[in-house]
Amino acid sequence: MPRVILWDIDHTLIENSGVSKEIYSTAFELLTGRVPRHAARTNGRTDLAIMEAMLVENGISDVEWVDTADALQRAGAVHRAALAARGAVLPGTVELITALASRPPVVQTVVTGNIRANAEVKLKALGLGDHFDLDVGGYGSDHMERYRLVQIARQRTAAKYGPQYGEPHCAIVVGDTPRDIEAAKRGGAEVLAVASGLYSADELRAAGGLLVVQDLADTSELLRLLDLT
After folding, report:
1. Percentage above 90 pLDDT, the chain
2. Residue 1: which pLDDT band, with cuts at 50, 70 and 90?
3. Distance, CA of 158 to CA of 161 (rounded, Å)
4. Is residue 19 within 8 Å of 82, Cβ to Cβ?
5. Looking at domain 3-15+87-225, which CATH architecture does it have?
6. Distances (CA, A) of 76 to 11, 31, 33, 204
7. Which of 197, 214, 223, 224 lies 20 to 30 Å from 35, alpha-carbon distance?
8. 221, pLDDT greater than 90
9. Is the Cβ–Cβ distance between 24 and 51 less than 8 Å?
10. What is the pTM of this model?
11. Residue 150 banded pLDDT, cuts 50, 70, 90
12. Buried b (16+ CB within 10 A) or exposed e, 82-107
């Protein structure tokens, strides 16, 4: 059966070690000329939602999204070296995505709150840039609502690889937050929740995760859970 694996990036594939929040702060400075009094709050939200809330909390409400996206892209480029130095690929990630790549019916891409440019910065800075078809992903530059990113990625994958890749239950989101679980359910995908971020396995189950693992370390077990043994 064709499978579309929709990977979250931060705290699922990689640990950004605080660089993401530094990117938001730099983007804020580029937009406003001052340091934010209130830092960004992330927790699985999209860049559009994160920056909009951050601007409002800092007393600013008249910034166009095109300007915000440009500032985020410039900020991501500024912090690429810091991410390469301080970030890390999480245990088991390379082994699992390599194993998935050897199975021809599988397409791997990302569904991430990051704008596409910064998704690429994060993946390439940590050596993961060649593992995914980023042209069919869903990004924070596509929509504010995360479930819409799942739908967009499914549509793009089906358009490129064939309608069979758009069938119900063909796609599975792999992510670390309750928002990933909600997005998968509303976006027409299954979900594998990974307790590698801020949320425990119990919290992810309470949020509706039926398949929950502690990390990506056991490649064989994860292939079984993804129905790809």
Report:
1. 89
2. confident
3. 5
4. yes
5. 3-Layer(aba) Sandwich (3.40)
6. 17, 14, 17, 29
7. 197
8. yes
9. yes
10. 0.95
11. very high
12. bbeeebebbebbbebbebbeeeeebb
Quick: pLDDT tens for 88-106: 999 999 999 999 999 889 9
Go through 147-156 and write b for each residue having 16 or more CB atoms within 10 A of its CB, e for each that does not: bbbbbbbbeb
For residue 31, what pLDDT is reported?
94
> Which residue has 């940590």 as its token pair?
126
Of the CA atoms within 13 Å of residue 195, those in its CB half-sphere come to 15
Q: Which tokens belong to 87?
A: 């970030």
Q: Which residue has the tokens 């994060």?
A: 122
CB 197 within 8 A of CB 12: yes
Q: Is the pLDDT of residue 229 over 60?
A: no
